[in-house]
What does this fold into?
Amino acid sequence: MNRSTIDLWVGVFVVLGIGALLFLALKVGNLASFSNSETYQVQGRFANIGGLKVRAPVKSAGVVVGRVADIRFDNETYEALVSMTLDYSYQFPRDTTAKILTSGILGEQYIGLEAGGDGVMLKNGDRVRLTQSAVVLENLISQFLFNKAAEAKEPEKK
Amino acid sequence: MQQLEQLREHARGRLERLGNTVSSQVWRLGFASRFLFYLVMHSGTALRRFRLTVAEIYFAGVLSLIIILVSGLFVGMVLALQGYDTLQRFGASESLGVLVALSLVRELGPVVAGLLFASRAGSAITAEIGLMKATEQISAMEMMAVDPIARVVAPRFWGGVISMPLLAALFSAMGIFGGYLVGVQLIGVDSGAFWSQMQAAVDLRNDILNGVIKSLVFGVAVAWISVFEGYDAVPTAEGVSRATTRTVVSSSLAILALDFVLTALMFTGGTNQ
It folds into this structure.
């Protein structure tokens, strides 16, 4: 085997390797999403964010319109302050509602946006005023148990 | 009394041997580090006369292609079969793509490709350099004022370092293709869900870039161990065979230990996903 054939094979090998990296980046890792589009930031206050994590999707009508950029705890109001980065091509009215929802029963948590009717749109740095916290399963169960207990007591009184 | 004396002598002998082993291992490690430093500093020839390195990429990379591609394909196919069996019990068979892609890109790609690379190419590098030393080709080069580290060792080292990430990427890509073949074509998982869930879950920086970094680190470790064991081999037939065995054993252990450290560093931060 002389030198030029070796060069050819090494060239093929390098091209294959870089092709595999590109395949991983584009087809598997989805490089194209939200990397170069313009974005704006809005914030929301939540009493409880449950298991929401940074980089969780922000969806409206099931479509991913942005991602959670930052989660902080507000020392004065004892609430969670969540910053969301939204894609510039999706504009929402000022009275949009932000809810923390769960995909499926065991799935990860995301923020769902429901558009309101206001004519003025949200701008960069605005705050979403209407928010709904995550549903915490323990609270739900204890509420249910208390109700049951109360129902069971009432007939005795009568 | 005499028995006690004998016992003490025996214990001292053991202690001495233990100390000898430890100190000679530390001495070897120090020599290996100095060797790596010298090797990197004298890589000018290998990079200037890049044909030398290209030839080594051919031996280490191109000739390992078949085993890497076939193993990757089968690992991906097995992952899909096993994963589907478990996932469908929870009604989550659509997540098969996520399972296959994440386990390949994060762990199996770099690690298994590294292990295969160590036994396929690393052992060959050690045997070659060791045999050159045993047949006094290395001494002959020194005699002709040619630096054997720059001329023989450095191209093999860089050839290994360059080949390894490419091989690991090919392994992962092939494995995902194998998972697709079994999961979508054979079992019948929905093709759209397979790819879209995979794309939603695999992160470019957290998963793919970290996998590439891992494979690069493994490449440096395997290439370093291979060339050092060859250069340090006792120049006899037995010495070369022992050095080759040591290369495979210590590279495999190094890959697994490094993998644990790198995974602990990369994937336990609370901020990913």
